[in-house]
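During the second half of the funding period, the structural biology subgroup turned its attention to how the target accommodates small molecules. The most pressing case was zinc ion, which had performed well in the primary screen but for which no bound structure existed. We therefore specified the complex as follows and requested a full 3D prediction, including the ligand pose.
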Amino acid sequence: MSGIIYSTKMPVPENMNAWVLKNPEELVQISKPVPKPGKAEVLVRIDAIAICATDLEVMKYGTPALIEGGTPFNKNFTPGHEYMGTIAALGPGVDEFEIGERVTVEIHAGCGQCKRCRSGMYTSCHNYGLNYGSVNKGHRANGFTSQGGFCQYAVNNINTIIRVPRNMSDEVATLVVTAGTSMYGLTELGGLVAGESVVVIGPGPIGLLAVAVAKSLGASPVILIGTRKNRLKIGQELGADYILNAKEVDIEKKVREITGKGADYIIDCAGSEETVNQSVHMANRGGKVCLAAFPKNPVNFDIGYLAVNNIYLYGIRGEGKSATHRAMAFMAENRFDPGLVHTHTFDMNELPEAIRYARDRVDDAIKVVVTNSY
Ligand SMILES: [Zn+2]
Ligand SMILES: [Zn+2]
């Protein structure tokens, strides 16, 4: 394509190393052409990428990835979506960024032409996965419907690019999507949570950073519920006022004791039948529950309690409404240290081993980051 701007200070090779998904849970490293940025796009040289639980899901089940209208297996598809890197080329007409800038990315660009994208809800794009063939809507969600980041270069829409401050490490910069997802949950619940009580269930990466973001927004008290002591301790370091071990205390009773009438906001990052019901039962009248994780199968749910008590239930998808930009603003000001959830680093060539650490939680792994060396 003509009009692409390259620079001699960042030479871009013709081909790159890329991991691609063959059959379920089978990744192989191949050589692929380096992609070319189009209009409103840049080429990012990937320096670091974090492994997410959703990557593990995509590699095992295929969903929520959607490639050429179906599962992502045996389609030369590169998964991975939580990456950061250096801008290596500019698509035609792009003057918003410069080659050599360090950036991190959000996943979803959406299609830009549907009703949801037009209202800023590009993570709920109506044309999800429709970026191929004769009905091509140009949808992009890297690592889900378009090529991801377990490789050396990826193309990103400029609206998914966020500058990384000089003093922030590559590893920490990969965590902006995780913090952005937590931020989006709080945005959807109302945003102004200062002085309001927030309960987070499930101290995985999104739950732990939900504690940090809620605290940074002034929520009080912030209560974290989990079962793994080491993770609860990290939650405390990220600002939780109370940590409750669900194995040791009656958490619904305890939340009522702490808050008086129940919590104003509950973010369920565990997503089991048990926690969905606990979330609703912990809410005060008129309280709000956000499902940041969800049960895979239909569950028994106390919907009567929800209706009678005017409790609101929200589903969130991804890092919507530019929440990553707000998360980065907090991270850049050191309001909290997302590095506390980063536990392990591997080289890109060792990706299968890195995935094993993330999946099996080897050595208490929380966030595992993979880096490229050039
Ligand atoms: Zn993710
Ligand atoms: Zn759309």
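Two results from this model are relevant to the next phase. The first helix runs from residue 53 to 61. Residues 52, 54, 81-82, 177 surround zinc ion (ligand 1) (CB under 6 Å).
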